[in-house]
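Table S2 (text version). Query chain:
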Amino acid sequence: MSGFVSFVGSGPGDPELLTLKAVDRLKKAGAILFDDLSSGPILEHASAGADLVGVGKRAGRPSPRQDHVSRLLVDYAQTGAHVVRLKSGDSGIFGRLEEEIDALRDAGIDFEIIPGVTSASAAAAAAQIPLTRRLMARRVQFVTGHDVAGALPGDLHLQSLVDPGATTVLFMPKRTFPVLAEKLFKSGLRRDCPALLAENVSHPSQSLTRTTMEDLAAQLHKNISPAPGIILFGELAESP
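Corresponding C-alpha cell output:
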C-alpha cells in the first residue's frame, strides 16, 4: 500500500500568503510533517484528524537528522496516507528537498511539488522595494550563508557576489556574515553598499533593518538575535 506526498511551500509564515493549492492539500492530508517556521496559524488549515509531526531544523537548536525526516516521510506514505511535507518559504530553495525526493523515489512513492512564496520576495515586499530594476539590477542571486556544518561555504563565487548589477539574497546568513563581508570587501564590494536585514518576515514581530554592509557586519559581530532572518544587499536595498 502506497500513499502520496505533497511537498508544500508554506511561504514565510503569514497564512494569508499560502496558495489556494497549498490550503487544499493541507485540508486533505492525513499527516503533515512541518518545519518550525510553518507551524502556528498555518496548521489551522489541517483537518481535525490529521497527524501533525514537527520535523523542523533551526540553527543552534537540537534538530532531527535529515535521514530520520526522510524515513518518517516514507513510513507515513507507506500506510497509504496522503502526506503533506510542509516546508517554509519555497521548498525548492535551500530546503533539502532533493534528499526527501530521492527517498520517495527509492521507495516507489509518488509526489508533487507545490511552490510557495520565498522569504526573499516577502522581505522585498515588506521593505517596499523590487528585487530587480531595469538597467540597474538585472540579476537576482540566492546564496546560502552556511554549509552542512554551519560554516561559511568555502566555494562561494565571490566575484559574482560583488557584481554591482545584481541583487543578492543571503539565506541563513547571520552567523557567518561578518566573515563573508570581509571577503566581499577584499573582492571589491563597497563597504557602504546598501544592505537590508529582514527578520521574522511576514510575522507580527517582523523587523527590517536598513543599513550598510560594513555596519551590518559590525552589528552581527557583536550580537545575533535568534530570530530567523535573511539579508539582501545591492543598490536596491537602499531606503526608498
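Notes on Table S2: The CA atoms of residues 4 and 82 lie 5 Å apart. The chain has two domains: 4-114, 119-237.
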